[in-house]
Amino acid sequence: MGKRLDTTPDTRLILYAASKYLSTSSKKELGVQIPFDVYLQDPYVNENDAKFGFDEEFFVNWEPGIADGPTSARFAVVDYNGDTGAIIPMATWDEKQEAFLAPDKTILDKQNAHLPQFHQVNVWAVLQRALTFFEEASALGRRIPFGFEGNRLIVLPHAGYGKNAYYDRKSKSLQFYYFDQGDKRIYTCLSTDIINHEFGHAVLDGIRPYYYESSLVQTGAFHEFIGDLTAILIILRNNNFRGKIAIDTGGDISAAENLTSLAEEFGSAVSDKPYLRTALNKLTMADISGSDEPHDVSQVLTGAMFDIIKELTRRYIDDRGRTFKQAFYDAVDRMQRMAIQPLDLLPPVDVTFKDYAMAVLRSEELSNPTDPNNYRELMVDAFVNRGILDYEDKKALLTPKYVYDRIELDVYHDIGDISRSRATAYRFLDDNRNNLFIPANQDVIVADLYDANKYLYQANRLPRQIILEYIWREDVVLNGERFGEFNGQYTTMLCGGTLVFDDKGNVLSWFRKPGTVGGTGKNWEAEIAVGKKRLDDFLNDLAKRIQTGQVGAVLGSSKGMVGSLVPPVTVSKQDGVLKFELSPHLNLSGEDHEHYKGRKSWQISS
User: Would the pTM of this model clear 0.90, i.e. be above it?
Assistant: First the structure.
């Protein structure tokens, strides 16, 4: 990096306000990005291969609210230990030195990585970069909310003793634990892979909070997939890391074990494996049929996406004459757009692997409609080979068609009016219930309304997207002994859809999850048939979880934090209706899930 320019505080604030228009190199030169020492992956990797130790080019966006903790606009590090009740002194921010300081006023860098205050800075800096990864125009192109009331995620670097780390919506926190392996203490807050994985849960919960209200295995597995994908894609964006991989593998991406291994230190200590899960697998949907452990199931989708990275890299070498390093860079750059931008297209409830595959392909169709290099078929084949899509899906997807299909509406609304507020968006939905397959007697809710400005390759802009999510609840009675103590009680099945418009009002995408009741006519019959299949899947999955003891109430610890073990699916009763949800914390391993299999059903919380 060249010499940094000196700027006044007022000038820096102006540059900060305009930073989204600046290149990365300009941000560094102008002082709106500042350097930090963080582990590239984790201490285990550092000890075994120093070239994969600390990230020597790690920069975080400067912002005026950086403070002790560290604390910033979206994160607050609170070093509270739930086991001991101790609060570890925080790292203090020195604006003049642009660095966090230890209690003895030394700068917290890799020279004092043993200090708990360095742990605080390490986890905060990694999270700051991960947030940028999701919000930049190459990804979602918008600010990301969290799935709870408030805008700061609380981060506990030393939450207690145990082999875990997790995101917990109820306490608005990311919690990282530590444990001993022989004479060595392992801290999950020092694993960049683990930090990014858990933050992936927080991001998905923020943009699709109703996924929590699903007991479907694939919905839980999709959460785990997003965690793994986040960890993999962020490490792949590191230039030095890609260069080292190119040297170590001799250009054979399939041999890049370092590339796809997640959380080496944690995995080797806990499971005697070099990683918890890997993208280098050959699993298909048939292989995991019957499994209800989301970490295991998630590997199918992770593997499919890595298949695409490998094939894109090969194509770039063969078709464009790129070196391995250049081709790998292009593939990873494309993958961020291809994998993250489609998240805005997903339905608001009950996501499946097929939903995601179809969203990826629709997003690719919108951004690359002519597809001169036939990349879309490459992607389709990756999903078909894994059993996520079938050959009928492939045939339909590759059949030439118009990019936009007009939705017939009873009442057309101006897109400016629809995007103005949830109230105006609701009137659009209500005026067009029959055309949008929303039952007349259901209280439809606008779950979210936002817009996004995304980039294509070479910073070409996509049209502005307006995303409208809506849901309703269909009452369901649990009839039969298979529902155990819940027999005869009521719950609800979430239904709804996600409509994506461009700034001209064209419908770019429409993913929906229908219910079992509605209007009449041929179109309604097909919609209701899908809804009835959804209901059967919902009831069968719930019954299986109840019978295997995976459903129970949330028990907090004596110190007010979430207990270290919670059931995979929790249940509570609100106004006489049962509400089933994924575990309130989405953790790093599947131990909780296995722990509760076959146990007696838990007491329902009131």
Answer: yes
